[in-house]
Amino acid sequence: MWTLFEPVHAVTYFHPRARAAYEAVGLRGYWRGYFAGRAAPLGPTTAPPVIAAFFSFAPRMVARALPSVWRLATPEEALRARLTGAVQALAEFTYELPESHLVEAADLLEEAAGRVEIAGRVLGAVNAALPRGEYPLARLWQAATTLREHRGDGHVAALVTTGLDPVEVVAWRCRADQSREFHQPARGWTDEEWSAAEERLVERGWLTADREPTEYATATFRTVEEATDRAAMGPWRALGAERTERLRELLEPIARRCHTVIPRQSPIGLPAAQAS
Question: Minimal CB count within 10 Å: which of 45, 169, 193, 259?
């Protein structure tokens, strides 16, 4: 289900209409829109809570954006901009689908999002508390966003149990199955920080001397992924197998269209097969 609702959410990062909506309220530049839009449910927050909740960014990269972005747009303006841009993007992808399709998908996804467990899940909780959207695409996008932030909170909790710090996690993933050329600048880590992280990963048995992932690391990260999935299962157990399957059928054509704007080397890590 994550591979289906994540692309719906992700249009806010990659679609030109989403960028334009942020720029219209004064959030020019990709990262201003990103940090303001994603952090806006927290209110006019400063950098430390976002460093903690977003996990993988270099602290100074977050501090460059927060709290200064609130002088350009209030959290309320950022929330309106992110929803406006996302809905416009989804409208471009779904105009051929019947209205009944979108309403049913929004109803089921919204019901699933209404069953998230908020204890210990800050980003999931603040998104779940936002007002209900007025139109099907707004409801669909907000529900997808609540579910992905809820899942992300659980993923961060699972990562913390490994004892790795954020730059170590990102550096390891880039040795395992991601691109350093893309992820290092996207997360704001310096060459020195990256090299030091890899050295620590070697010392701790996550990388070999040749900087290859060890069997221990691969097995441990598989455990993290399994824990992430278990922590995210509540909404789907509540929805039930039959209605979850129906939602899968409804989301597939929407997710397939949304996937066309997501770069293959994106930090989201969606399976490449989903991009077809």
Answer: 193
How many whole angstroms separate alpha carbon 93 and alpha carbon 10?
A: 13
Is position 250 within any domain? Answer: yes
> Which phi and psi angles does 61 have, rounded to 5°?
-70, -40
Question: Which residue from 187, 263, 193 is spatially nearest to 34, judged by alpha carbons?
Answer: 187
Is residue 275 scored above 60 in pLDDT? no
- How far the first Cα of the chain sits from its last, in Å, is 17
Q: How many structural domains compose the chain? A: 1
pTM: 0.95
Tokens of 29: 């530049």
| pLDDT, tens digit (0-9, with 9 covering 90-100), for 44-87 | 999 999 999 999 999 999 999 999 999 999 999 999 999 999 99
- Contact (CB, 8 A) for 42 and 50: yes
243: tokens are: 């209605």
Is residue 237 pLDDT above 90, yes or no?
A: yes
Residue 245 CA neighbour count, 13 Å, CB half:
3
pLDDT at residue 273 is higher than 60: no
Asked whether residue 209 is assigned to any structural domain, the reply reads: no
Angle between helices 75-94 and 2-14 (to 10 degrees): 110
Q: Is residue 85 part of a domain?
A: yes
Helix (H) or strand (E) holding 126: helix 122-128
The angle at the Cα of 265, spanning 263 to 268, to the nearest 5 degrees, equals 85
Q: Is residue 117 part of a domain?
A: yes
Helices (H), 204-239: 215-231, 234-239
Amino acid found at 103: V
Tokens of 274: 């989903």
Give CA–CA dist 8/127, Å, rounded: 15
